[in-house]
Write a structure and sequence with these properties.
Rossmann fold, 12 strands, homodimer, alpha/beta, about 350 residues, six-stranded parallel sheet, 434 Repressor (Amino-terminal Domain), about 45% helix, 3 domains, DNA-binding
Chain lengths: ~350, ~350
DNA sequence: ATCACTTGTGGGAGCGCTCCCACAGTACCT
DNA sequence: AGGTACTGTGGGAGCGCTCCCACAAGTGAT
């Protein structure tokens, strides 16, 4: 286990060649062992592994990247300013999910913010230099040029939250439609009838799908949606407050609010409380994301849980496949892959 | 400006050699231009730059890393679980500061969490592979083995928040002692006399220094500190609550609280409010960090501002120096560098 | 005119790997 | 006996740079 600390006589790090000499084999064989090729006899493998341990050999990443034309690194690109990244639990949850999935890999994860023009400039340079094997995109707006840049540079990419039903990149999504439906059906089941919806940014496809789910749930239950009860938000707490104020002003009789995110629900809650409405007695409240905010809200917030961990896992899986597929200049099929993961309603005291 | 998109005929990315051929010069000359060497005539430089633009040349990072034995990347290592990273504004502030300073550099910043044993394992591998030129360490506890590992591997490192007065690594710090003094002097100036202190984790050197500043400010003003008014916290909100409860129970006559962080001040505020104490009328409250929390608290919190941006700048500066110094196997002097930056008291309604 | 230096330039060597071809050895058919 | 196939192995070539030596050309002192 313990490396004897015995480095090559030159004081530098040991190389493949030195390991090979020590193990009494050729350079190619050591390379095969290091890379887990099956075409090595057990005895040879053992000898090489012993030499590796004795010398404390660690492969030189740069040499490997140069020779193999891959970097073993992928980037998580957040096209938002850092402030939003830290403010929104969604991002850190995704990061955690991806990180967990990557933990047993050799892959290195890079976190790159591309909120400002300057940062985007840097990112473009970075991608042009092919410093990563693939890219994970989160929270991309409909008009963002990034996906085009990526396909132009032929860099494998997976997007979380497709930009539209016709998303051209491989994508991972949660079932926004189904999640919204289950939230509204839950409220209907609790006897609520005047159910408002504070939407997310409508240039985000997932937010649209939640509106669709909200509408369809009401319609299918025989209570077609009152379009006026749909108030656009923007995923921020302040947006939630603003929307809630408008809703209260125009529809004082509402008895439930389905917010497109927990953060907006938090804003809504504040306004409701200031208006003297009790939760859930007067107005039931349901959020989306099931973030830490939901658990710590007073009262605890019913919310739609997205399987973030699984989404991270799925993103990595798909990206690895893309990377592997692209290695030979394959027939880049039009079979864009797409994963949609189920959501789960977590019922708490707010509804 | 616009790259014509004309890649080498082979469809791959253009190489130095191709740029050289196009510009009618040798490979070495192109390399000199790319790396900004002054030993190139203006005419040649212009020709090379034109060729670079026409071909859309971007240097191959792996080849450069292999040949030059450097990676142009540094890591920001956070020896904490990700959750704490996202919960504490201090980290994101530091990240922002470092990121801003790095924006005009070619340097790439990597964010690495080393909270769990598994993550530390990975980090050790990572460092052993020398995948970064240097390391920025934040929030390291006194008994952490990481600094030793770094000096063993001879990886340049700068630590933010030295572990002790005898810190062996190059360090950047804010003037915790002076900051605490100014907070206490401010409270004294407002006529407060029973000033309590909720400390940070005392295995963090900066937290100790704040206690020292608190003590000395009181002593120098002729009101030696009542040691019982010093209550240990742990930088968390819950810790702030706990400490505040104890303080109120044992010292109901206190008229001011100096908390070692804004987060703890938020916890303290909650307990004070629940106990019916008005802020600042009954009890004045001062925090530390001047984070977003301080601005958004009700009432807004007086807090000691650390020049995070400047600290980030200083860390990068010092690290770059370390990296440059180490390039030739220099006489590793014992002249450990250390920067201490001044703090500023931001007075708001809470005091 | 000679020498000594400086400036700008070209290109060889080499960084530490991966990829792949060559080949020895063994096994199992014809 | 020859063919065919597969397994395990060694080592050459080459990835795209940087470093550095060599050297031509110019400059100025002797």
């Amino acid at each position: 286990m313990a490396s004897h600390g015995g480095r090559g006589r030159s004081g530098g790090r040991p190389t493949l060649e030195e390991v090979a000499a020590r193990a009494g084999v050729g350079r190619g064989t050591v390379s095969r062992v290091i890379n887990g090729s099956p075409r090595v006899s057990d005895a040879t493998r053992a000898a090489v592994e012993a030499a590796v341990a004795e010398l404390g050999y660690v492969p030189n990443t740069a040499a490997r990247a140069l020779a193999a034309n891959r970097t073993d690194a992928i980037a998580l690109v957040v096209p938002e300013p850092e402030t939003r990244f830290f403010a929104e639990p969604y991002f850190s949850d995704i990061l955690r999910g991806v990180g967990a999935e990557l933990a047993d890999t050799e892959m290195q994860l890079l976190l790159i913010f591309a909120g400002s023009d300057r940062e985007r400039q840097r990112l473009a340079q970075y991608l042009a230099a092919h410093r990563v094997d693939g890219v994970l995109l989160v929270s991309v707006h409909a008009d963002d040029p990034l996906p085009d840049l990526l396909s132009q540079l032929e860099i494998p990419a997976v997007i979380s939250g497709p930009r539209s039903a016709a998303e051209s990149l491989t994508s991972v999504d949660s079932d926004n439609y189904g999640g919204a439906r289950s939230a509204v059906e839950h409220l209907l089941g609790r006897g609520r009838r005047r159910i408002a919806h504070i939407t997310g940014r409508l240039d985000v496809y997932g937010a649209q799908r939640r509106v669709d789910g909200y509408r369809d749930a009401l319609r299918d239950a025989g209570h077609p949606a009152d379009e006026l009860l749909i108030e656009p938000g923007d995923f921020t707490e302040e947006g939630g407050r603003r929307a809630m104020r408008l809703l209260l002003a125009h529809h004082p009789d509402l008895d439930a609010v389905f917010a497109g995110s927990d953060v907006m629900a938090a804003g809504a809650r504040q306004v409701l409380r200031e208006a003297g409405r009790r939760i859930p007695d007067d107005v039931a409240l349901v959020g989306y994301d099931d973030s830490a905010i939901a658990r710590h809200m007073d009262p605890p917030l019913t919310s739609v849980r997205q399987p973030i961990q699984e989404m991270g896992r799925a993103m990595i899986d798909l990206l690895q496949t893309e990377i592997a597929d692209r290695r030979p200049p394959a027939s880049r099929g039009l079979d864009r892959r797409r994963a949609v993961l189920p959501t789960e309603l977590v019922v708490r005291a707010s509804s």
